[in-house]
Structures are given as structure tokens and as C-alpha cells.
Amino acid sequence: MSDVVLPNSADDSDAGVPEKASPRGSKAILEVFLQNKLALVGVVSLIAITLFCFVGPIFYHTNQVISNLANANNPPGRGSPLGTDFVGYDELGRLMVGGQSSLEIGFSAAILAAFVGVLWGAVAGYFGGLIDSVMMRIVDALLSIPVLFVLLLMAAIIKVNQLNLTLIVAFFAWLVPARLIRGETLTLRSREYIQAVKGMGGGAWRSIFVHIIPNAIGTIVVNITFQVADAILALAALGYLGFGLPPPAANWGAMLSQGITFLYAGEWWLIYPVGVLIVLTVISLNFIGDALRDAFDVRLRRR
Amino acid sequence: MRERQHSTATTRWRRSRSFGAAALTAATLALGSAGTFSAGVAHAASSGNVIFALPPAVVPNYIFPIMSGTYYSNVNLYQFQALMYRPLYWFGQGTQPSFNESLSLANAPVYTNGGKTVTISMKKYAWGDGKPVTSEDVIFFMQMLKAETSIWPVYVPGEFPDNVVSMSAPNASTVVFHLDKAYSQTWFLYNELSQITPLPQHAWDKESAAGAVGNYTATPAGAKAVFNYITKQAQNPSAYATNPMWAVVDGPFKLKTFDSTTGTTVFVPNAKYSGPVKASYSSLTLEPFTTDTAEFNALRSGAVTYGYTPPQDSSQIPVIASQGYTSSPWIGWSINYFPMNFNNPTVGSIFRQLYFRQAFQELVNQPVDIKKALYGYGYPTYGPVPIQPKNNLSTPQEANNPYPYNPAKSVALLRAHGWSVQPGGTTTCAKPGSAMGDCGTGITKGEKMVFNLQYNNGFTYVSQFMQQMKSDLAKYDGIQLNLTTAPFNTVLANAVPCKGKTCTWQMENWGQGWSYGPDYYPTGESIFETGSNINEGSYSNPVNDANINATHVVSSTSALYKYENYLALQLPDVWQPDPDFQISEISNKLSGVSQSSLLNFTPEFWKLHS
Predict the structure, then answer these.
(1) How many CA atoms within 13 Å lie on the side-chain side of B430?
(2) Residue A141: which CATH number?
(3) Staple partner for B579: which of A128, B20, B378, B540, CB 3.0–4.6 Å?
(4) How far is CA B93 from CA B13, B481, B514, in A?
(5) How do residues B266-295 score in pLDDT, each as one tens digit?
(6) Which class does domain B335-579 fall in?
(7) Which positions 121-180 of A are in contact with B (Cβ < 8 Å)?
(8) Which chain A residues are within 8 Å of B315, Cβ to Cβ?
(9) Does this model's pTM top 0.90?
(10) Is the ipTM of this complex over 0.85?
């Protein structure tokens, strides 16, 4: 999982003024983001990949449910621009279908992880004391477990489907945002506007949901982008190790794993296209994440 | 035995006759040329280490020759234990699966008393501690086996060792078995006596580490105690190379080191081996690999002396040849299939319908599987007797698929038996009942054809077989297979005979079927007879049982032909292509290698050139 250098929105903002995104603030964020050319490349690539996966099948029809072993491992040619895979599925169509599940699981797991992590971290940071200690020791304990080992264990004992796989990946992904938001909350909770809420009789949950979390939105958004990339890689790793979605479902990791089997046979079309897509997706998300981090950093905004 | 992960597949065996007794001749195989051994010749001593690549993800893990199905693998039996503890009778002559008297510890058995008495005379072999291999060592094995039949994988109630009603050792070199009736001498040698491995009674017959050696196995209780003691020692693999009891060997090799974590095994020649040929090189290493890709990488780098090319990399064989290797497919004496659980409480009633199994089988396209998934390195399985190596035991019916790939016929068969076939959907039973044209006994109206199938994820070809079969079943018959994958050992552990509510597995495919051994004569009692310990799906058919039992007493092949022709049509399992055991790559520096279809190997014959 990527550790993110936090945009410290609270440190540089006016101590007594909540930093909710205003139209002016949003514009500034957008300006900084757009100045990052790599980010734009990332956005364009991600949009292109998403369209390829979700819109592509509308124009490029293939049967990705019924295999045809007689056509297995055919090289690129007429009818199959990227050849066929080891059971005869059209590889180009397979990339689209595999990308759908990879992106869906990646984004779902990241959002779920962010939701749980933000809530966990904010509660721990806001209440502090024993609650904080207990909650964060749980996080530390889970972080100390080799993630891949547990992912494999869970994938082995649980019937794998898209929902379960999302939950499995998210199960460990929430730990990093929990730590980040907890640190952010420790800073925010001492701000004057939080004290004011308390002084006026506002409850803890109001402070958390209305003031703390909105002011940590930069950290959250940035983290989600990295979480998506990490989730896609985790999914690819699981698929590579044979614990991905069962056939005929596809995902890029499993496709890459199968392709590697035919490495010496020279069947490049089973390796390079899917490898490029995984790398491109992850790099795009990282570019976007880096740019968002800069954009949410008030020190980099023009006043 | 069930094969453990091999790079490409399975093995099959064959048994033959040729040990002289005229009565056996008719029952044995039409064997071709034998191997290239030069028995009786000791090679000039040379140095060097021969590195033999183990199949992917398979390592030796049990040293005691009396073992449960958990450990009953080719690697343990033939590439590990047999190098140290030789079976009483050796099978395999070069590439042919026939009886090899010259490598056996005893002369061919002599039958008297109308075939009810078997006399075995031991040859002059010695253990590593200098003591002779005697008849007491055979009795020692038999007494422990009789005490522990429940764990013996190829045990069939009423058969070996039950059919040996009494035994004696009148002198150190003679063993006499009294049988419950006269049997086919071919069958009794190839499938019953073949199970015996003499063990060093003078060193192992004790009930505890601190206890003295005695004659404890003379009683069943004592035999159990001794068995338990030895088993306990065997369950400590880290001591295999250091525990003195394991050094008492009569085979051509002894253990030098054994890494119980990785499975890396190093043998050195047993200087006191009293067989016809002694190893001429300094050590033999069994090298484990996690995947066939890892093994192939090692092969390409020249790190193994005797390895294999995965079938998907067969295009690289010329490259390997240019690096100094000779390629040679290693074909085993085996069949490949996967079981349906006839005792499953929910879907067993469907599996028990012959028409269903026929419809299912008619959507297994073995020729395409062999061509596209095995790259031609395999053979179809159409019945219980292997069709390769070429032999006279398989009938034309087995060589010509009785249920060729035929989607239209498959669909028609289901419709003719009351099923509402929904191609691409889910087929349901429309006419429950047991009359002609009904779905069959125990099948309810509206019952769906949805099944679970778990398969071994270690081999690409198994995945290809299963995915294609799933597609065809759904596309034509509306049969939905829920595929899941698991490691080889998990699949094997799940595929056990069972009954009752907890007997929930439906179909399990470890991908490698059955390699005939030590039941070398393919009469199928170990895997297809009612009540066998490894009849995984609990297939039970009185006609088949009678046919099998007839093969045990009739020496001609007629009974075998009747058995196999009947069972091939009954489909006790789902037949699937049988891959070659491996595409061997043998360094040109290594000579004297012949690949037994029984998968046992004789590395003492190999010669390593510098």
C-alpha cells in the first residue's frame, strides 16, 4: 500500500476557519491540478481505459462465456486482432471484460476501504485516550500481518465472487487511510472551530461528520486514488496466484498469469497487452493521486 | 497409484507375463523390445552428481513403504522409497511394463496345490548392515499389512492380504503363502504379490525406540504396535537421513541428505547393494520445483541432468537439444478420469443415471483436448485399460471411443429421459419417475442440472479441459458447472469414498487419474470395485464386480476383455485425456536411461560421462 504524504490543509489554513471547499477553493484546486501535465495524461489514459473496458464491448462483440479450445492460442489475425487465449477466448474482448472486473473491484474496494478507514481514524483521533489506543493497536496488529498471505488464505476458504473479492481486498486496504485520517483528526480536533462546536453543545459525531471529515477531504481523495491502484495490483496478484474470479470470469491478473505460462512459446499477445493495461492503469492513478495531493496542498495554490 | 503433480501428466502401467511360466504367457502383454539395460554389469566407477528434476510442486515426503493414501504417490513409491527398499518383485523391462525377474529380490513364484499354495524363494540380497534379506522380512511386511489394511490404499476387502489365509517361512530363503482359492497366476503376481516390500525385521521389529528388537509382529496386536512405532518415526522427515533405522536398506541407494522443508533429496550409492548393477556416479539429487516453468528455466540453464519440457513449451525442444539434451516422451501405464460422487445426497441420484453419464461424456472432446491443451503429448481414455504403450490388453472398443463428442446426441439423450433441456440456460427435470423416459429414481420435478466441480489448479491443461467442458455443457445441454480450483492435495483429500449427509462433494478432478501400480494388471479392483479404498465416487455395480472377480481367476485375457468392454460403456467416472508423464530431457552426458512406463526408475543403470 502506498503511504501518502499528506496535504496538510489544516496547518496552513486559518486556525479558526473551517476549510470547506468553496467555489473559489475548488477553482484553485482545479487550477493546480490542470497545471500537472502528467495528471492530465493520467486522466486521459484512465478515461480511455474505462471506455475501452465498458464501452468497447458495445462495438466489439465477442463471446466471453463459451470457450472454444479448438481456437486456443491463435496468433493475432483476422477475426481476432489480438489473437486468442489458452481456451480460445478472443483476447481483445477478454481484455475488456477482464478490465471491467479489475476496475470495478479496484474502485469499489478503494471506496469501501476509504469509508471504513476514514470513519475508524476519525473516531480514534477525535476521542483519543483509551479508545484511540485500542483502535489503533488493532490497526497496528492487522498491519503487521503479511497481507498477501492473508489474502490468499481468505480467497482459499471463501467462495470467490466479485463481491467477496472486493471485501477481501478492502479488508486490509482500510488500514492506511485509518492511520492517515487519525493523524489528520488529531490536528483538526484542537482547532478553534471544533472547540466552538463543543462550546455550543455540538456532539462528537457532528464534529466528526460535519467538520473533521470534510476538512480532511483532500487526504481522503488522494488516498483513494492510491488505494484504487493498490487494489488493482492486489487483485492482479491474487489472480496471478490462481485465486481470482473463477472461469469464465476474467481479470487482468489471472490473464497475465495464464499468459506467463506460454512465455517460451512466443505467444506475446497473452502477456504484453494485459501487462501494459495493468501498468498504464496503475501509473495513471498514481499520476492523478500525485496531482491531487499537490492540488489540495494550499501552499501550492495561487492566492 | 494416483499420480502426484507431474509436468505433463500421468502414467500407466502394464504388466506382463514373461517370467517363464507358460501359464502366464497367454495373459500377458504383447510387449515390444525391452530396455537397453546391461544387467549384471557393474559400470566403471565415476564421479559426478546426477540431478533429476521432480515434477512441479511434488516432493518425497514419506519413507515407510506401508503408508496411507495421503502419501501414496509415484514420487514416494518409486523415486524415493524404491531406491532404498526394493519391492519383492520388480516390474518394468526397459520401457515395457512387464515382470522383471532379474531385478526382483525373489525368484518367480511357484504355484502348487492346484494354485492354492505359493512358494517364493528369496535371492541372495543383503541389507546395508550386512544381514541377509530373508523370508522373515517378507513375513514381517505381511503381518503389519494384515494388521493395518484399513490404511492401505489399494486394499479391497477379501483380496490381498485377506486372501492369504496363512503364511510361513520354513527357512530363511523360502516363503509359503496358502491362499483361500486358486487365482490367475498373472493377476496374483502383478496385482497381489506386487504389493510386497520386504522390510528389515531384524532392525525394525520393535515397539519403541528404547525397546529391543523381537518378534512382536507375530501377533496382530504386536504388529499394530510395531507399525505404529515405525509410522511415528516416518512422521519425522527431518530425521530421514540421520535416523539409523532408515539406513538399513537393500536398494541401490541410501539417503545422504533430506531437506524436509524443500524436499531436496540427495542419495549416494549403497556400497553393499547386492543387486546386479551398482551405481557408478557419486550422488543422485532429486531436485524439487514449485512450477514447471521454474523447472524449465533450470533446464535451459543446464542446471539439471534429467529434466522435462512442459508441453506448452514443446516448441523449445530444438533449443534444449542444442544445449545437449535428448528429448523423449515418458509414457505411463495409466488412465485419466475424474469421479462423480454417486453417494452425494443431493445430486447423486442424477449421477447414478447411466444416460446422464453418457450425455456428459459425449461433451468431452478428447481429440481437441489432446491437440490443443497437450500439444499432442497425450492419449485418450475411453475405458479402464490404457491404450498406451501399445498392448494386447486393451480392446478395439477402448481404442475407438464408444462415446465420441456429439452435442446433438447428448441433448437428445437428456430429452429422451424427461429433461427440459435449455441450451445456454439451466436444464430441469420435467418428467420425474423411474419409468422409461423419466428422469430416474430419486430425481424430483424441476430439479436443476447444476453441479460443483473442483479441479487441480496446478496444471494448465486441466484448466483447459475443465473450462472447455463447462462451456460445452452449458452451451448444448444447459448443464451448469460451478468450477472451483484447489491444490492437488486438497482435491485428492476431498475425493474420498463417503456416504451420508456429510458426503457433499460432487465432482473432483485432480487431473491425473490412476497409474496402474502396484495393481499392474489393469483389472480395476482398486479403483472400480465396490468398497475399494480408492473407489472415490463409490461406484457400485454388481455386474462389474463379477467381471472384475472373474479376471482374478481366469488366466486368459477373455475375462479382462469382458470387464473392460462392459465398464467402458458404464462410465464409472468421466474419462478424460491422459497426458504423457513428462517430455523428458536427458543430458547427453547421461547414458543407460530407459523410461519405464511404470514410472519406477533404475538410476543404478545410468552412467554419467564427463
Answers:
(1) 12
(2) 1.10.3720.10
(3) B378
(4) 11, 43, 21
(5) 999 999 999 999 999 999 999 998 778 889
(6) alpha beta
(7) 156, 159-160
(8) 264-266
(9) no
(10) no
